[in-house]
Design goal:
Blueprint: E1 22-25, H1 33-49, E2 53-56, H2 63-72, E3 74-77, E4 88-91, H3 98-106, E5 110-113, H4 117-131, E6 135-139, H5 145-151, E7 173-176, H6 179-183, E8 193-197, H7 203-216, H8 230-243, E9 248-252, H9 258-268, E10 273-277, E11 293-298, H10 304-316, E12 322-324, H11 338-341
Helix pairs in contact: 4-5, 8-9
The protein binds iron/sulfur cluster.
Length: 351
């Protein structure tokens, strides 16, 4: 049954419709090492220097996290010209272009970099490949800040001039999202070509685009190691396994979170109903009607507290016990930026 068409209404505890779905919890889920690090960087900056601490773009794509940091004194802006000169700025986990770094310096801002080291790894790849005289095809979602940052490692800050059909590209970088984009892509020298990817793509979708690139440009160079990060891979694998045994999947994540959206798609591609919710208040009891097993997972930027609230609400609707699946154990930890850890504390206000 299409859950959108059911007529069941949300009812308070005790009067919930007959729902007996068991809950299955994917593993791993939620925070990755890059998100953990980015949040700690903002918190440490607030602790050391006091509010306001400016953050360029949402430090990670999660409303709950951003609201919590805002309450502690973080000020989120989209552009550096919104920040008074001489202030402290933190670059988000998605990374920034070289032009943004240069602008921060020219405006006299003190920058602390929360770019995930796995995004920085892609930036370094891009720089090396361009120095080696290669043109680069980036596989990613147009407009996503990570794509803008990676494309911006070579002179431009905007992706607007990097369309797949742009044959006069002067930066040597092209952005493609789909095999159809590859079909119309023209490069200067197919013998000197490489590709990189956004770190949070669907592995299945990326494979289709990579295959299309390899078919069209047989000599294209692949990255030394996968650009799609360990956390994205592990969470997608876990949802795929979990979804095989479920007839409904709920992903906890904010609408602008790329990896959360991909998790919902991974579940949906298994032919079952799948929804993404920012928090428990978005759940609808009718989604559970006639379901036997509901799988729950969370994007890499979604905190566990929201998962717990989602489970509590599902049970409030009548769902049963929780079974947590076994999964890959992640032990990745990233170091904090040296300029932050070594900076002297200037905030003397006791909290
Ligand atoms: S999802 Fe991957 S690339 Fe993005 S912050 Fe997490 S570890 Fe880093």
């Amino acid at each position: 049954m299409n859950p959108e068409q059911t007529t069941l209404k949300h009812q308070p505890t005790g009067e919930a419709p007959s729902i007996e779905a068991a809950i299955v919890l994917a593993n791993p889920r939620g925070f990755c090492a890059g998100v953990d690090r980015a949040i700690i960087i903002v918190e440490q900056a607030l602790d050391k220097f006091g509010a306001p601490i400016y953050v360029r773009h949402e430090v990670v794509h999660n409303k709950f996290v951003v609201d919590e940091l805002r309450a502690k004194g973080a000020v989120f802006v989209e552009e550096l010209d919104e920040i008074p000169s001489g202030s402290i700025v933190i670059f988000s986990a998605h990374g920034v272009s070289k032009a943004v770094r240069a602008e921060a310096e020219s405006r006299g801002l003190t920058a602390y970099d929360a770019t995930c080291p796995l995004v920085t790894k892609v930036h370094i790849e891009v720089e090396k490949m361009r120095k080696a005289g290669m043109e680069i095809v980036m596989i990613g979602h147009k407009g996503h800040p990570e794509v803008e940052g990676t494309m911006g490692q070579v002179e431009q800050t905007s992706t607007d001039d990097h369309q797949a059909s742009d044959t006069t590209n002067s930066t040597g970088m092209y952005l493609v999202e789909t095999p159809e984009d590859v079909a119309v892509l023209t490069v200067k020298d197919p013998a000197k070509l490489a590709y990189v990817t956004q770190t949070t793509l669907s592995m299945d979708d990326a494979a289709l685009v990579i295959n299309a690139l390899k078919e069209k440009f047989p000599h294209i160079n692949a990255p030394k190691s996968d650009d799609i990060c360990y956390a994205t891979q592990n969470r997608q694998d876990a949802v795929k396994i979990m979804a095989q045994d479920c007839d409904l999947v709920i992903i906890v994540g904010s609408p602008n979170s790329s990896n959360s959206n991909r998790l919902r798609e991974v579940a949906k591609n298994q032919g079952i109903d799948a929804y993404m919710v920012d928090n428990a208040s978005y759940l609808k009891p009718e989604w559970l009607a006639n379901k036997k097993k509901v799988g729950v997972s969370a994007g890499a930027s979604a905190p566990e507290v929201l998962v717990k609230e989602v489970i509590a609400q599902l049970q409030n609707f009548g769902a049963g016990n929780v079974q947590e699946l076994q999964g890959v154990v992640e032990s990745v930890v990233f170091q904090l930026p040296k300029n932050l850890t070594s900076a002297a504390k200037t905030n003397t206000v006791q909290s």
